[in-house]
Specification:
About 55% of the residues lie in helices and about 15% in strands. Strands 7, 8, 9, 10, 11, 12 and 13 form a seven-stranded antiparallel beta sheet that branches. α6 crosses α20 and α21 crosses α22. The longest helix is centred in the N-terminal third of the chain and has 25 residues. The protein is globular, with a radius of gyration of 21 Å.
Length: about 450
């Protein structure tokens, strides 16, 4: 089975390859990398070579000559592209901040700008997949994942599935804090109700063999203080919510605090990654050889993970991520589990970004939601969930309107839809501000 990775020069690609090497099923017979940056993909290919050393049955890796070469004959396509690179991300962050609103990669005005730039490229990829590999499954990691998956589904229907590691990481950390056996997640004894949009969802139920764990966890200050989301949101607010929010909801619930934290820092997350990863690729290319590239990659990876969501942690009192926070679910493992579930027709339950159907009746059937799905040979089927609370539903409806306006704007080059997407976002408080952000983004593109 051939796996193609678009954005094959991406920093996290070795995580996917390492998961494939550890896969006892050995289901992937070839990995094909494609990237628009030849230096980056060459460095990552070196890292993969080092990872494969000493492995009894390493998965062969090939660097494709072009997009069509990469897609032809693919069984699965992982899409993890970054249109505009980290320089584009910096603009997405700095332009909103100059207007006094949050600048973040996937949330708020920054997420809309990123989507407007990325969706046309994602649509082109979807069209080439439909032409060259119509039987392939596309697993989309590209952010903003919900928005991009929704755009690609216009071409590929249910054969594109979006993934994120935040929800599964939340479930694992909450289960550990509630005292559940970690093995319960893997063997199916742990149940959970999670629903929302990408980077905007809530864990509303957590059961172990039918026994509800969430109320006890929410009542326990020490348990809540033992994991990332508990520290981010605070015990009092979590008890008021009656649920555990995805970490990205910190930008919504604590907008002022997070914005103040970002304003007070000398560099944005994009600027940090631009220097860190730019330096990594430059040093790794100059060092030459798999051993040097791998050693540099491993050091850089750990620093990247430790500094993740640093502004939100600063805004909630300042604390360091511990080993349990870093474990999470791993988007590489989520992707592999999804692939196995499709190939093995296993009925595995995973939290994924898929078409809504009737899961949230107030949303359109083709709107992409992030929820618990049952996965088999025919793809991912969203499972019924309990009704959303009014505050949850209201925020979902507002942000989904933003996402759909952004898809419309990028698909049809409609400035009015782009302005609507920016102005209607809950973290952008003025159509005049939205217009200035859009104008400046066009000028600096």
């Amino acid at each position: 089975m051939r796996l193609t990775i678009l954005g094959g020069g991406g920093f996290r690609v070795p995580l996917v390859y390492r998961a494939l090497l550890d896969d006892p099923a050995g289901s992937v017979s070839e990995v094909v990398l494609y990237d628009t940056d030849p230096r980056r993909v060459a460095v990552i290919a070196d890292v993969l070579t080092r990872l494969a050393q000493g492995h009894p049955t390493p998965v062969p890796v090939r660097v494709a000559k072009g997009l069509d070469d990469a897609l032809a004959g693919a069984d699965f396509v992982f899409s993890a592209i970054r249109v505009g690179g980290t320089a584009g991300r910096i603009r997405d962050e700095r332009i909103p901040l100059a207007e006094g609103v949050l600048g973040q990669e996937t949330v708020g005005a920054g997420g809309v700008l990123y989507g407007l730039r990325t969706i046309p490229v994602a649509l082109h990829i979807a069209e080439r997949v439909a032409a060259l590999a119509p039987g392939a499954w596309v697993i989309n990691f590209t952010n903003p994942a919900g928005m991009v998956t929704e755009a690609m589904s216009q071409v590929l229907g249910d054969r594109v599935i979006g993934i994120c590691d935040s929800p599964v990481g939340l479930v694992r950390r909450a289960a550990r804090a509630a005292g559940a056996d970690p093995a319960a997640f893997a063997d199916g004894r742990l149940g959970y109700d999670y629903v929302g949009l990408n980077h905007l969802g809530w864990l509303r139920s957590l059961t172990l063999e039918g026994t509800e764990l969430l109320p006890g966890l929410l009542a326990d200050d020490a348990a809540l203080g033992s994991f990332e989301e508990g520290r981010l949101f605070g015990a009092d607010w979590l008890r008021i919510l009656g649920a555990l929010p995805n970490e990205y909801l910190h930008y919504y619930y604590f907008r002022r605090e997070t914005l103040d934290s970002v304003r007070d820092t000398p560099e944005t997350r994009g600027e940090f990654l631009d220097q860190q990863q730019g330096g990594f690729f430059e040093r790794a290319a100059a060092a030459g050889g798999p051993d040097a590239a791998y050693a540099l990659w491993e050091r850089t990876r750990l620093e990247r993970e430790q500094t993740y969501m640093a502004h939100s942690r600063e805004a909630s009192g300042g604390w360091q991520r511990d080993s349990h926070d870093l474990e999470g679910g791993g988007y590489d493992r989520v992707a592999l589990a999804l692939m196995h579930a499709i190939v093995g027709d296993s009925g595995t339950r995973l939290i994924l970004n898929v078409r809504n159907g009737t899961t949230v009746p107030q949303l359109a059937p083709d709107a992409i939601v992030e929820t618990v799905c049952e996965v088999g040979a025919h793809g991912a089927r969203p499972l019924p969930c309990a009704p959303l609370r009014e505050d949850q539903l209201g925020l979902m409806l507002q942000v989904k309107a933003v996402e759909r306006a952004a898809v419309e704007a990028a698909t049809f080059k409609d400035r009015g839809a782009a302005l609507r997407a920016l102005a209607l976002h809950p973290l952008v408080d003025s159509p005049a501000v939205a217009a200035r952000i859009l104008e400046r983004a066009a000028d600096e593109a």
